[in-house]
Amino acid sequence: MAVGSDAGFVVLTVLLAWVVLLSGQVSSEPTQDKQALLAFLSQIPHENRIQWNASDSACNWVGVGCDANRSNVYTLRLPGVGLVGQIPENTIGRLSQLRVLSLRSNRLSGDLPRDFVNLTLLRSLYLQDNRFSGGFPGSITQLTRLGRLDLSFNNFTGELPFSINNLNQLTGLFLQNNGFSGSIPSINSDGLDDFNVSYNRLNGSIPQTLFKFGSASFAGNLALCGGPLPPCNPFFPSPTPSPSIVPSNPVQKKSKKLSTAAIIAISVGSALILCLLLLFLLLCLRRRQRRQPPKPPKPETSRSIVAETATSSSKDDITGGSAEADRNKLVFFEGGVYSFDLEDLLRASAEVLGKGSVGTSYKAVLEEGTTVVVKRLKDVTVTKKEFEMQIDVLGKIKHENVVPLRAFYFSKDEKLLVYDFMAAGSLSALLHGSRGSGRTPLDWDNRMRIALSAARGIAHLHVSGKVVHGNIKSSNILLRPDHDACVSDFGLNPLFGNSTPPNRVAGYRAPEVMETRKVTFKSDVYSFGVLLLELLTGKAPNQASLGEEGIDLPRWVQSVVREEWTAEVFDVELMRYHNIEEEMVQLLQIAMACVSTVPDQRPAMQEVVRMIEDMNRGETDDGLRQSSDDPSKGSGGHTPPPESRTPPAAVTP
Ligand SMILES: *[C@@H]1O[C@H](CO)[C@@H](O)[C@H](O)[C@H]1NC(C)=O
Ligand SMILES: *[C@@H]1O[C@H](CO)[C@@H](O)[C@H](O)[C@H]1NC(C)=O
Ligand SMILES: *[C@@H]1O[C@H](CO)[C@@H](O)[C@H](O)[C@H]1NC(C)=O
Ligand SMILES: *[C@@H]1O[C@H](CO)[C@@H](O)[C@H](O)[C@H]1NC(C)=O
Ligand SMILES: *[C@@H]1O[C@H](CO)[C@@H](O)[C@H](O)[C@H]1NC(C)=O
Ligand SMILES: *[C@@H]1O[C@H](CO)[C@@H](O)[C@H](O)[C@H]1NC(C)=O
């Protein structure tokens, strides 16, 4: 600390000396750059903290630094001065000699102006802590002298371009806390000392060139893997021995490197042990013949041994007996359509779908082409028996709006669940993915359809299965191609005892669950109410588990509704559809009933289904409901022609 302030003092003295020196030669002036700066300040809204005196030399202005000749502006530093909005074209982009540009900690938004490509001499660009949005600015990838680039804490989205590699002088690249998605390109990291892409929405494997950075550089992303993070295909983290290896192999392997004396010693020893074992077996057999054995010995199939060797750690290969082998195989539920075994699953190519607090989900494509979802549970606390009892209940649930659980696997080290794969993805992706970048918005008919079908799925869990879902959120609502919803990830809370807070995503959690730590049918109804609000507002509720700042949807909606009944709560993407206001208000009322703070005031799930069905019935006579049944027609009745697809200006809180 002391060293730092000393250094700062020296710098300050030098600066002061310069100012004193330079104030003598006011005559020289970067005329062109001054005009550009004045244009910038006059065009951008800002607070009154910047006072540039037009009759003074620009080189004397606060935040502006010039070269020794005072003929060009070299540095512009305006951190935290309350600049608001988009940087205008033809202003800063004209400062052709600029070396350092810092506009951090303002409220700048939108894209960077295109003429930033002309800042070819720029060495440092600090734009962190603003509200810039849009894709990674293409102009930046042409500023080949850049050494430090900080775009962190903004609202950038889209993929990171491979052309970042144009910036071959880069020593620091800071992109954390944005909305970048997709996988990280292979970035040349030779000169790179600092690198951070944490808290984005990146997925896929980390390129090898970036392995040298620690996990803190990649934290908080949706599904990154490899390098400093857990490996990419980790159904089974320990390198799995080949299935053909028999348990005695480790000894054979070792003996190859041993001397003959040792081999003899081992042989003699083995023979002795064998004799002892035989004796022991004989004794045991005699005893068994006297007392009736409690269970008949299980048949030993070759496949189960394969499964056992392939999955357990090497220690288990030696100690694990054949009795365990039969128990440790993939167990399918009745009525399933699959025929594969654990070995097939191990050979499958896998891709991370999502990481939750109960475990990670993978999309596994088996060699014969079948695709399934494998959920790898972590921190299961219950015993095998309790596990099997709960899973058995879940496996029996069959409903068109519930994702079927097909199989499970339980061993000491691994607990896997196998589900059907739903190719159309999750409601969360559909609702929040790549907003504003020319995607097809989720129309009202389909939102209603999802609301109703999800409600039916959950009601079936409650009524027929007597199962509390416990983790209702938009990423657990999966879609069939016809936009009928299926609920997934249900009924897993009992597997974790009290160790995991139930309903992990804070934004969906009913208030009483915070205290009781127990999910109930009524807390499911609350979560479903939040889901309805999400469908109506297009806003993601507070997702603490993703490190994303969100909003407490029920509270926010209540506050807007209380102040004045306005259309502001509804998703701007819905504003283009006509004659749906009444339905939206009806669904909003159902949602508000579901998110009552008092559990007893919430309707039961089957009542929610009936309420949504009733509101549909009132509308069927206009013929619009049917249109969404036919995907080819879509919701043509509602969708305006493509040229007028831009929604009206956003009304956000
Ligand atoms: C602007 O600078 C001129 C010349 O240096 C000076 O006379 C004038 O007082 C300054 N105006 C303000 C508002 O500071
Ligand atoms: C300063 O001006 C002199 C002559 O006018 C020129 O030779 C020199 O290159 C200039 N230096 C810089 C840094 O622009
Ligand atoms: C860059 O500068 C050149 C010359 O000053 C100008 O013609 C061009 O329009 C500028 N580029 C952009 C994108 O503004
Ligand atoms: C980020 O962008 C999204 C849409 O792209 C917008 O809804 C959100 O309000 C923006 N966040 C901030 C902090 O500007
Ligand atoms: C990463 O996410 C994108 C969508 O943002 C998806 O298209 C892609 O398949 C994902 N890749 C991996 C490896 O998960
Ligand atoms: C990257 O950024 C995150 C979030 O701002 C921070 O917590 C983390 O420490 C940073 N990592 C490194 C290596 O600096």
UniProtKB/TrEMBL annotation:
Question: PROSITE patterns annotated for this entry?
Answer: PROTEIN_KINASE_DOM (PS50011)
Q: Where is the signal peptide?
A: 1-28
Which SUPFAM superfamilies does the annotation name? Answer: L domain-like, Protein kinase-like (PK-like)
Basic and acidic residues bias spans? 614-632
Chain ranges passing through the membrane: 261-285
The superkingdom of the source organism is Eukaryota
Task: Identify the stretch(es) annotated as Disordered.
Answer: 291-321, 614-653
Q: Which GO terms describe its molecular function?
A: ATP binding; protein kinase activity
- Give the keywords, sorted: ATP-binding, Leucine-rich repeat, Membrane, Nucleotide-binding, Phosphoprotein, Repeat, Signal, Transmembrane, Transmembrane helix
Q: Which GO terms describe its cellular component?
A: membrane
* Record has Repeat as a keyword: yes
Location in the cell reads: Membrane
Q: What is its main location?
A: membrane
- What name is this protein filed under? Protein kinase domain-containing protein
Species in which this protein is naturally found: Vitis rotundifolia (Muscadine grape)
